[in-house]
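[recover] target loaded
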């Protein structure tokens, strides 16, 4: 069963009795109790985990009890003991206790049923296997519904918690019980315990420490405690087999592509923010109706969620984002995704009437201030916010977090605030306050924080409560607009289950103002209770029924893995506006029409698939297709139709159509009289060729019958060769050379055989079909030559220094010369064989000088891969491959070298490949380097090493397995080098980022430096590669390394060996700023990096910055603007903060009057620039989240 888990010791495993499974395979090896149960199964019972705790099972020993003994006859006391409170806390509908008095236990049959009793309005009974249900030395007891087999209501279900107590009627202090809970259905009619109790224990003279057995005189009572509970959501204890979300809830889910559950939960949240959905529908996409437009694909996704009956795929949307397979399998941050998606949709709405819709819906205003206590002076800044990040750590609930967010810091004593020249140093209050909240408030709960001791991010699982409703007015400034209440109602809870490295996202949403809550877990949608929405997502530890923490084996509390990560609240006064009705008619008209067309196309394909069994495909080879075919055999039946000039013709007929119908259809297509058309059945020969076998003379059978009679066919289609008669009789009937029909209807065979002729044209280096001939088997092979000369219009004879050479195409890899003096019969030629011929010069006569005139011209046309022999050309055909060559996007100019295709022999080696490509590009072959191609992304992979490997080995490496499955076998990237590959081997390639304008313009270069070189050589190579002014002309250049986390690592000295440069860091080069060059050795520098929201979300190029003693930060910012090259509004939006290692996740943001020299007092302190990553689309690394479309 899905989700099978081990049960605690002494806890039996419940199951049902009517499904056969090999029970021994499911024995619970962790159980130490002698009463450990086997799985139950149809004459055995399947296990369904019920989370039964060990306290649900009790073995009572009266002698060891110091308190009052509970008797099996005290039904109320027993009920309290055996029916423990359920974790789900469902409402109890009815409790029923029923006792079955069992007599003659050992003489009972294999299976016995007790009397029917009623509970919850339904019939029930106890099912007993007194001698075990396919288990030895056990009794098996179950609870089952009491409906007759054929009278169980459709879709019936009942959720029941129950206990089965076996007890001695003579001494009710002796009993044994097991408890479980189960969702009873028509399919799962019973549930219980296959290994209820060992038989030897039941009949022992002494039961535990008592002086009598449990089952005495073959008599015992079985009491069923049945508690019927309310299935409020319709999915309590559901196994979700054949579950239909649309049918049960009216909503559908989203398919998980790999690790896109975080995306699915956010998209569902936005979809059910109806005003947002309507705004997305209103984006004009009619003129940009393509799958690269993320607004259009989001419209399509929302429309499908609204109209589909099954879970919807997000493939179109993620492809429009520009995501590749690797991004699909990387979980990203919901908050970051939400912000970037909003930014992208805002861009799509610019210049339209919708331009302000999203800010009005999702954006509020917050004020950051420093206000003097004793003088009238305040410095403040008002900014927009799209979500609020609230601390979980140290707060017990949402309201505490808001208070924490707006708490005021007092600046006094040594930390007094400088209030300008007028007021000097003053006591002040520093903090933030909200000026307004949006209609839809997104709250990000900071469940992940940096742990300084472990030097990593960790998930905070502390209990943290959030209300269904709250009043946000307490967190607003005094001058905020209070004309409407600032009361908010919970609309969505996005949940993360798991830890930092592995987890799952799902969402609880309330689509309608007064409706149900629903759980959206990828493709599954279910109703949810408020307990599931609230209590179960507060985090913290699991509680027992008594409210105490559940403990693990180490006596530590067991923490819930799931907790709320993002909350969505809607302003109560705007609920109707935000949750406005949205119908499919609100979707763009062009979108609706597109889906109607797509639906019609799918229906047509579906109908075609359903009717496919009624039709048979026919593949036909005609004289015209054969003459256009330049490969082996008569055509390539395995290729797609019309994929090449010599491709077969394809027809589709009802299987019941006659062969005469087929002849008529083919004749009409090729514009011939049906009377002159004859079809030959083509079959697979043992040598894996496909050749005509015999003609179809009787046209009455159906195409299905003809196909079935054809022997050795390996194709799902009927394959035929179409013959056109050269002669007709006086009545217009065809006269066939072979298999002529006699007046009495008998078909006879003469000594003529059907041969196909191919010509290998040495001059044009091609093979082409010439046609077919009939020839007597008794004639010699040399008698074919006059026929060939006539067919080719070469006259009666060839020039004296030429002759015709004949070959038989036995199979693609076997081409043999024909001995001209043999008869066709001796040469073992038969119907359908292929004769290939070519003109060759007679070497004896040629040496005598008879061919001197043509010698020069022939030598001039001889190319790099010219085949003089048909057999060699066939070898080429057998190994040829069309390879596409692309200029490497980073190392070569695609404009200068457009992509091209070459037909190559896969047996050629690396050097020969270089010659062929070099000839095409008109470059030196020694200056070429090739790269394999990633099959999923089409990006370059690794460089191909020069060696003796063939092209086949390059495209399909030896041991082609999992590592190479992602490599294309029909394409290569190339790079035109400045030097030969041999010289390149002495160089080290270094990827370096050149900063030409502060840190705003990044240019990537691959620089080659001698392996024994130094950083100074690297700088010289960069100057040459980037074509920038030298150090003498424009100033010194420095080189430094940055970490993968976008932090400054170290500056490299000019004499540092390049061979020692770290492979796991990034190398950056820049002109040394004038103030840095003039700084003294004792000057203080600070490392700077960029981040967005939290220091752990770093981005961009870090740098070092000169700190000046006593300089106000207002002046420092002017130097920072010049240093970074970030100008205007972009620079004004940056918030600057000092990041300390001891408080990494809490930046100390700087005001204009702060002095960086004083605030950043430790050498470990860093300066952080807090702003969005505007250059994200240019850095699509593995960990970067980006949206392109």
């Amino acid at each position: 069963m899905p989700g099978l888990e081990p049960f605690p010791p002494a806890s039996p495993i419940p199951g049902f009795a009517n499904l056969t499974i090999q029970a021994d395979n499911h024995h619970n090896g962790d159980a130490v109790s002698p009463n450990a149960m086997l799985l139950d199964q149809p004459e055995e019972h399947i296990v369904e985990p019920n989370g039964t705790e060990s306290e649900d099972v009790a073995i009572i020993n009266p002698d060891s009890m110091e308190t009052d003994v509970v008797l099996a006859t005290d039904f109320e006391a027993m009920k309290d003991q055996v029916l423990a409170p359920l974790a789900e806390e469902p409402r109890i509908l009815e409790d029923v206790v029923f006792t079955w008095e069992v007599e003659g236990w050992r003489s009972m049959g294999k299976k016995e049923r007790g009397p029917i009793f009623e509970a919850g309005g339904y019939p029930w009974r106890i099912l007993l296997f007194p001698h075990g249900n396919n288990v030895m030395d056990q009794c098996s007891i179950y609870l089952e519904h009491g409906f007759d087999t054929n009278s169980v209501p459709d879709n019936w279900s009942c959720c029941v918690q129950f206990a089965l107590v076996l007890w001695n009627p003579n001494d009710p202090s002796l009993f044994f019980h097991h408890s479980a809970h189960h969702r009873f259905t028509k399919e799962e009619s019973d549930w219980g315990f296959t290994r209820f109790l060992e038989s030897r224990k039941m009949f022992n003279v002494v039961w535990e420490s008592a002086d009598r057995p449990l089952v005495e005189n073959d008599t015992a009572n079985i009491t069923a405690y049945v508690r019927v509970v309310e299935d409020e959501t319709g999915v309590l204890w559901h196994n979700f087999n054949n579950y239909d979300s649309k049918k049960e809830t009216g909503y559908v889910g989203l398919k998980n592509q790999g690790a896109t559950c975080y995306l699915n939960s956010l998209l569902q949240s936005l979809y059910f923010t109806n005003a947002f959905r309507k705004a997305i529908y209103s984006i004009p996409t009619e003129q940009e109706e393509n799958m690269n437009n993320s607004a259009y694909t989001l419209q399509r996704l929302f429309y499908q969620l609204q109209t589909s009956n099954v879970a919807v795929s997000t493939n179109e949307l993620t492809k429009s984002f520009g995501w590749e397979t690797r991004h699909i399998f990387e979980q990203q941050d919901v908050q970051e995704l939400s912000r970037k998606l909003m930014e992208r949709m805002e861009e799509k709405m610019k210049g339209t009437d919708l331009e302000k819709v999203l800010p009005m819906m999702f954006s509020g205003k917050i004020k950051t201030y420093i206000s003097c206590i004793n003088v009238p002076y305040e410095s403040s800044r008002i900014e927009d916010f799209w979500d609020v990040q609230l601390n979980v750590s140290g707060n017990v609930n949402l309201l505490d977090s808001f208070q924490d967010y707006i708490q005021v810091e007092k600046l006094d004593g040594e930390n007094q605030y400088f209030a300008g020249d007028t007021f000097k140093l003053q006591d002040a209050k520093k903090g933030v306050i909200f000026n307004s909240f949006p209609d839809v408030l997104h709250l990000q709960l900071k469940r992940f924080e940096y742990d300084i001791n472990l030097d990593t991010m960790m998930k905070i699982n502390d209990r943290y409560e959030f209300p269904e409703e709250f009043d946000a007015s307490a967190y607003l400034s005094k001058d905020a607009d209070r004309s409407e209440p600032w009361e908010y109602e919970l609309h969505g809870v996005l949940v993360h289950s798991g830890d930092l490295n592995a987890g799952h996202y799902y969402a609880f949403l309330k689509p309608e103002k007064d409706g149900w809550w629903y759980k959206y877990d990828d493709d599954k949608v279910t109703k949810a209770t408020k307990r599931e929405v609230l209590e179960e997502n507060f985090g913290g530890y699991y509680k027992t029924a008594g409210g105490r923490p559940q403990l693990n084996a180490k006596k530590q509390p067991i923490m819930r893995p799931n907790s709320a990560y993002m909350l969505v609240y809607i302003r109560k006064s705007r609920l109707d506006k935000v949750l406005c009705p949205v119908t499919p008619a609100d979707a763009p008209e062009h979108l609706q029409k597109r889906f109607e067309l797509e639906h019609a196309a799918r229906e047509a394909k579906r109908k075609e698939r359903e009717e496919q069994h009624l039709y048979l495909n026919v593949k036909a080879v005609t004289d015209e297709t054969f003459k256009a075919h330049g490969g082996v055999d008569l055509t390539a039946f395995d290729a797609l139709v019309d994929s090449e000039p010599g491709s077969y013709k394809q027809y589709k007929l009802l299987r019941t159509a006659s062969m005469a119908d087929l002849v008529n259809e083919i004749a009409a297509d090729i514009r011939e009289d049906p009377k002159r058309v004859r079809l030959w059945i083509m079959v697979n020969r043992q040598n894996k060729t496909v050749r005509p076998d015999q003609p179809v003379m009787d046209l009455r059978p159906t195409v299905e019958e003809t196909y079935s009679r054809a022997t050795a066919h390996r194709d799902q289609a009927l394959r035929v060769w179409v013959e056109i008669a050269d002669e007709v009789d006086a009545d217009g009937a065809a006269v066939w050379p072979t298999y002529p029909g006699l007046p009495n209807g008998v078909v006879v065979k003469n000594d003529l055989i059907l041969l196909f002729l191919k010509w290998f044209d040495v001059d044009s280096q091609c093979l082409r079909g010439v046609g077919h001939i009939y020839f007597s088997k008794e004639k010699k092979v040399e008698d074919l030559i006059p026929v060939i000369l006539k067919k080719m219009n070469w006259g009666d004879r060839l020039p004296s220094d030429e002759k015709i050479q004949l070959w038989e195409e036995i199979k693609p890899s076997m081409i043999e010369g024909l001995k001209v003096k043999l008869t066709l019969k001796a040469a073992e030629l038969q119907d359908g064989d292929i004769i290939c011929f070519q003109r060759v010069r007679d070497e004896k006569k040629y040496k005598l000088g008879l061919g001197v005139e043509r010698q020069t011209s022939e030598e001039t046309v001889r190319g790099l891969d010219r085949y003089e022999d048909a057999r060699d050309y066939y070898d080429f055909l057998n190994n040829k491959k069309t390879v596409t060559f692309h200029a490497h996007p980073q190392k070569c100019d695609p404009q200068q070298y457009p992509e091209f295709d070459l037909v190559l022999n896969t047996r050629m080696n690396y050097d020969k490949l270089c010659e062929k490509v070099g000839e095409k590009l008109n470059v030196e072959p020694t200056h070429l380097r090739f790269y394999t191609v990633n099959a999923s992304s089409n990006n370059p992979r690794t460089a191909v090493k020069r060696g003796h490997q063939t092209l086949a080995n390059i495209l399909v490496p030896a041991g082609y397995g999992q590592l190479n499955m992602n490599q294309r076998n029909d394409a290569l990237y190339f790079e035109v080098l400045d030097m030969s590959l041999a010289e390149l081997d002495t160089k080290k390639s270094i990827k370096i980022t050149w900063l030409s304008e502060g840190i705003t313009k990044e240019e990537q270069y691959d620089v080659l430096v001698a392996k024994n070189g130094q950083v100074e050589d690297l700088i010289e190579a960069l100057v040459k590669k980037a074509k920038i002014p030298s150090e003498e002309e424009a100033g010194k250049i420095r080189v430094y390394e940055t970490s993968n986390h976008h932090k400054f690592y170290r500056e490299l000295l000019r004499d540092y060996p390049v061979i020692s440069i770290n492979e796991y860091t990034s190398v950056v080069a820049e002109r040394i700023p004038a103030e840095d060059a003039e700084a003294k050795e004792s000057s203080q520098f600070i490392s700077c990096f960029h981040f967005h929201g939290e220091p752990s979300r770093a981005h961009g190029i870090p740098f070092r910055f000169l700190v000046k003693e006593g300089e106000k930060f207002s002046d420092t910012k002017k130097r920072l603007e010049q240093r970074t090259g970030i100008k205007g509004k972009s620079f004004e939006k940056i918030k600057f903060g000092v990041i300390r290692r001891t408080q990494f996740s809490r930046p100390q943001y700087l005001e204009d009057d702060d002095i960086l020299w004083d605030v950043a007092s430790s050498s470990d302190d860093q300066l952080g620039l807090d702003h969005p990553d505007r250059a994200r689309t240019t850095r699509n690394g593995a960990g970067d989240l980006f949206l392109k479309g």
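[recover] notes: Residues 1-13, 18-67, 846-864, 1176-1184 have pLDDT under 50 and may be disordered.
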